[in-house]
Each structure stands twice: as structure tokens, then as C-alpha cells.
Predict the 3D structure of the following.
Amino acid sequence: MSNKDAAAATTGIREELLRRFIESGERERLQDILRSKLQASGWQDRVKDKCQKYVHERSTNIDDITVDNMAEEVMPYARSSVPEYIKSEIMEDVRAFIYRVMPENKDQP
Amino acid sequence: MSTVSTSPEKASAGSAKKCGGCPHLASQHKAVMERLKVLVAYAHVCRHRQALLSGRRGGSSLAEAGDRSRKRLVDEMPGPSCAACGSCADRLHACLQCDSYACKRRGSSGSGSGGSSHLAQHQRSSGHVLALDFARMHVFCAACGDYVYDAHVTSTVLAARTRWHAALCDAAEPEAKRPRIVAAATGELSAAGARYAREHGVIGGGGCAAVRGVLNLGATCYLSAVVQALAHNPLVRGWMLSDTAHGGGGGGCARAQCMACEIDAAVQALHRSDQIRADQPFAPVRLLRTLWATAGNVAGAGQQDAHECLVAVLDALHASLAAEEDNAGAACACVVHTAFAGVLQSAVTCERCGNTTRSLDPMLDISLDIPPVPPVRAADAALNTALDAKQRRGVAQASMTRGYRPVLTLHDCLAHYTRAEALAPGAYRCARCPGGVGSAAAVKQLSVKELPPVLTFQLKRFAAAANAGGNGGGSAHAKVDSFVRLPLHVDMTPYTAAALSGSGAPVLPPSSSSSSLPPPSLGRRSDATHANPACQYSLFAVIDHTGLLDTGHYTAYARHRSRWFRFDDAAVTPVDVRDVLGFADDTAARLGRSAKGRAYMAFYIKTVLDYHDATAPAAAAGAAAAAAASTSVPASADLAMPDDWIEESGVLSKRQLESQLPVEVKVERRGRKKGSTNAARKQKIKEEAVAVPPPPPPLPPIPIPIPSIPLVDIPQEGAHLSSSEGDSDSEALWARISKEKAADDLVPMADPFPTTTTMFINPAALIASNNNNHEEEEGEEEEEEEVESESE
């Protein structure tokens, strides 16, 4: 297969996987699991605290606080402070799902 | 343009568009609401499709029919996907003015925020500004540039959520006897109510503080902490302040050493505003004396254990309350049991024959051992080395958690508590083993069978069995000092009996001999449980212990209307959540430095409060008597803590009083008062279905001046939130005032959880009551109002 074909095939498979991922409810389920793990690890409390600090800093100009701005500001901290074990566990779950659904595509990234 | 501009004129105009701030939403209100209702229902189905599908229904024929229709639901209903790119991920937003969906984040030029996302494109091209975040159900207004808050929208969303709550709980735990959800709480502030509150609200001075110190009478810090924890327990507080329980509040009780009277007096003293000055703590002299009289094991002038004290207080409370109600055979309906009582299950499985015997144990709280700190997890270690290698190669993958040690959390303690442990051989004799006699290897597992509305955890920090015989005479037993992180929210689904026993006999973790803890609890079931909404809890009080075993000091942290306070005997200070949860200690522990764990007891309350009302076993008009009716109070949005919960109360109809029933309450939901017409009832029922609005993001819709707590500076954010609760309080008061003409129709009932817990912290009411200076009247009227709700 030429490179372009391979790329197209990959994209097609990826889209298909994504569609199955969502429509089977697996995404919701994993999101719930992720949410509770993050909550259990205290990540949620820390990020919430960070958001509150953000609001406090800009409390004089409250109209400028939008969800998007706050998300931009807090996102780097939030992304980087997710505990590693949570990341790896969710990755494993996703991988397991992929194997379940498309067993022949073991080598997809 | 202000995102949530508040405009009293708008609200008090009594217009049908009772919207908060976004003028764009206001201008299109009707059409938007129509679409919204449909979209919200659709969103719920899509979101919880799997959860609903996986719920098992009892009964084979029913199961098949149900499954078939549900399967059809899953297969045939398509999920939404973005009109531009066809993906269904990436924060889909549904346009509220036409029939399209768009992603918010993914954009054609690849950049996330700003003008190039698919949503922005759609909005530019079509001129529609309003969109609904499909997953979280918030309304986004492009012109305002932010998510906007609208009372109608949020009430619709919450009403839908309440309706689905029952279905989801059912799906997660089909066998559980769930109270029938009869009504959801209402917290809407009507136009006239807002007017009244504005006129009668008071700025500064007066008002209810509800945060008042308790004087230390000499090593009684344990009592101070326990009293504060009880006073801020919404269920206990509500019941105590309702004033119709237990002899009408001080004076009706004939017993000499009645704990209920004392706790009643204590809670009222802590909340009463007319006598509070910032420096006058409450002296629990009589309470202490009653405690000593009724519970000998905590008597004595020295330091006692707070947990023992709490148990003693609850026992005494139950004793003094249960004596009044001769409840032979029925479950005890006193406030202690209705609030705290749960059931633990111990399941022992014989490994030979697989037979499981279960025994149930009533409990008032859960005492957790503190397991040893887990070593660095294997996954962490592997990733750490991988990241190290990457960083050396210059691929920066900044991860702050690299090198962090794992910290003990409450979940770890719970997992340890509910672990499957192998009993020593010879300890268990299986009754059903075919081989006859012979002790078998057995596996025992504890779980929670029934979750109480208020869940109390005690962390066993005292290593040796301290029987708290406190006069300082005990030897220096070691105190377990490890830091245990308490979450603000706890999901108890993985620890319930249903979750743990659903997969058959308890299975030993594979590496039981290794030193690592079992994997996080959600990994126990191979098909992970969908979180049961009925098992979500929020933290509202913590009791800390600092110092050594015998000479330590207890402090309490409690949440009052989403603000946290630290109660150190007579000194009350507002604190950040960071201090409560001990972020500083947390970070220290994560970095491997030694951190002293302080938390000793933690109190959690159900996020969605559904509880059983007391029902009389033999009621005259037994309509609602047989089934326990209940109310369900929906909490606010996903991550936010609910500010408060407003409960609806039943009514003891006058008919019953006349028939001389005993104190037992017959609770009639949506009680029909004399002379109420059908129209009024329907109106009331319709309004009951409107749910409590969640705390608005930055500002409340109507600025009600709220007295600041006379102690110290309030952080600005907290002030906003408190004023939104002030709305509901003032509203309640106003409705009450307007109904006084119908007062004689209703009699307030002796329900354990009669009214809203916040209503007594009503500044306006307390100001008004200052004129009468009579607590009883206030409590009574509050309840009347609650029942009647607002009719116009």
C-alpha cells in the first residue's frame, strides 16, 4: 500500500473506531471511570482550587472571566498534574476496547 | 457586556421571562426553551444509554420486554455528530436555534479556541448565537462570549436530571428498594419574593451567624468538635431547628437529663442571632452534664475521644427520642437513625463449595483502619523511567506528577476495609460443605448494604485499642500519623454490597501476598459499575486531631452554605477548602516528606438527598402510609458542591390531630389542606417540579443584600453564593407571610426532616422574629410555607 493509501486507511479506521467508541457507550463509561479516578486522587479538588484562585485574582473585573479564558489558564496545570497511573490505566482500558472491537488492528497507534 | 447582569427591575416586573442576564437569551426565550426541553431529554438518553441498558430488571418477562425496547433505543437512536466534520467527540454543542450540531474545539484551522471552531463557524454563518453544550447542558452565548446562566434553563435541566436520577439509580442497582421520588425541591424566587427580600433584608449587624464557637470547659475540645459537627449536619440541624420535634423546643420535655433537649438547645444557641456577639461562644455546661449522666464511659474530667463522644451522644439522643415514640417492630424513626443508620454486610464465602453466608449489621458510622502507605505503583515507576529517558532526549513531556509518591486517600482506606481477606484456616466452618465437617478456607468481605444519608467515617488513628479512659492515665499508645487525603466527594458505588457481590463470590486480589494494595476499586468488577447517583456523597464536616494520643487537641471544620469554617473551641475562622483538605500536607506527602495527618473523622452527606419520611405503621387515612414517600433533592451541576438542599415537607393533616393519633407521624406527600382547590394544588404541584437552581457561575441573578457574618472578612466568591441562598430563604419567608391567612388550616408536623435546612438561617426571618423573639413560631411558620410553596 502506498503511503497515502495507508494514511487514508488509517484515518478511515480511526474514524470508524471513534464512532464505535462513542456509540457503544464506551466513551461515556470510560469518562465516568476517569472522572471518579481523578476525583479519588484529589486532582479534581486541586484543579477546582486553581480555578477559584483564578477567579479571585480577577475579581475586580468579573466580566472578563469566561469559561474559555479560565480553561486556557488552568489547562496546562490540569493536564500536567494528572497522576501517571491514571493515564496508564485509562490507556489500557482504551487498548482493551480496541482489541475487542477490531482484533485485527493490533498495530494501530 | 456583562455575562450575568442582574436586574431587579426585570425580575420584579413579574415577566414570564425570568431569565438572568444574557439579553440574547432573553430575546428568544420561548423558542429556545422549546428546543431545550427536547434537547435535554435527548442528551440524557444519549449520555446514559449504556447505563440504562445495562441495568437489569427483575422478572424474566419484564426483563425481555424491557431489554428489547432498550436495545432498540440504543441501536436505533443515532448519536449526534458535528455537521462540519462528522465527529461526535470534542464537546459537541447543539445549536439552540436550528437543528445542527457542531464541535466547539475542533476547528478547520486546527486551533482550538476562538473563532475557528466549527461552532463558531456555524454561528457566524447562521447568525445564531445560542448553543447548548451537549454533555454538560450549559448554554453558551457567542455574543456574550461565555456560558450564561438562566434560571429557566437550569430549572429545566435539573428537573430532567431528577427524572433520570430514579432511572439511573435503578439501572445501577436494580434490586435496591428505592424510595419513590415524589417531588423535587423548588427554590425559585418569585418576583414578589425578591421584592420582599429586598425590603426586609438587612445589611450588616444582626442576622444569623450560625457559626459560633463553643467554649472549652476544660479539656472538652472533643465535645466542642462533636457539637459543631452535629450542628452543621444538615439533617440534624434541620430537625433540631424545626422546633416541633421533641416537646416543642425547650420546655415540653419532662425528663431531667434529656439529651435531645440539650442538643436542641445547643443547636439553637449556635444558630440564634439575637444573642450572638462575635466573642460570645456557647458554653455547653448542661450538655456536658447530661452527657456524663447518660454515658458513663465518656464521663470524667479529662480528655475523651471524639468518636466515643459522638457515639455516646447519638445513643443518648436516640434513647431520649425513641422513648417518646413506641415503635414496636417498625424501624426507628428518630433523627439519629434516619440520618446516620446504615447496614453493613459481611459475606463469608467458603472456598470449597462456594456457599456465601451474609450477615447484616446495623451501624451508625464506619471505622476505617489506615492501611500502610502503598509503595510507588508499578505503572508509575515504569512511566517515570520512560519519561526520564524522553526528557534526556529532549522530548519535553512535562508531568508534574513525576516522582510523586502515592498518598493515602479515603478511597484507599475504604478499599482496605472492603477487601476480600482470607480467613485463617480453621476459623470458619462451612455449613453446607458436602464433605461434612471440616473447616474450610474462607474469604470474608465487608461491604455496605445500605447507605445512610449521612455517612460518618472514623479513621482509626490510635494504634492500640484505646478505650479512651482518658484521665491521662493511659500509656503512650502510638498514634498513626499518616496523612490521609479526604476527597470532597465520595462515590460509594464500588463499596456497596450490590457492587461487590454482583460479580459472584468475593475474589482475592491476585497479589495478596505482595505489599501493594489492590488496584483501585473500580477495577474490581470486570464490567465497571456505572456510578450510581444515589451513592454520591459530599463532605460537610471534618474533625481533626492534632498532637499526641492523650494530650491532643480536637478541631472541627464544617461547611456552612458552601463556606468552610474552622471551629477551634471558641475561635471560629473562615478557611479555604485548601486548609480543610490539607493541601499543604498533601503536597508534602506527595513529595515524600513526612506529613502529619490530621483528619480523624469525616462527615459526608448524600449529594442527592433522598430519604424516607417517617410513616406511621397504623395510620388512619392510610393513603401514603404503606409506601415510604420521599423527596429527592437534586444537587447542582457535576463538579460543584450543592449549596444547600431544600426539602419539602409533609403535612400532618388536621383530621389526624383530631383523631388523637400518637406522636407517630403520618406523612402525606403534597398534603391536601382544607379548602385547597384542585387548581391551587395543580399549580403547586407544577411548581414543585421546578428544581433548585445550581449556584450560578459568578453572580447571582438578583442581588439580595445579605448580612455578612459578623466575624471576619468574607471572600467575595463566597458572598455571591450565600446571597443566592438568601434568595430562597427570603422567598420562603415571603411566601409564608403571604399565607398567614391560611395558617389555621395547616398544622406543622413532627417530621424528622421537616423543612429546608437553610431556612432557619434566614436573616429576614430572624429579624422579623426578633420582634416576637419566639423561636417556636418561626420554626412553625417556616414549615407551613414549605408545604404550601408559592401559589402566585
Summary: DSSP finds five helices and no strands in chain A. Chain A touches chain B through 46 residues (CB under 8 Å).
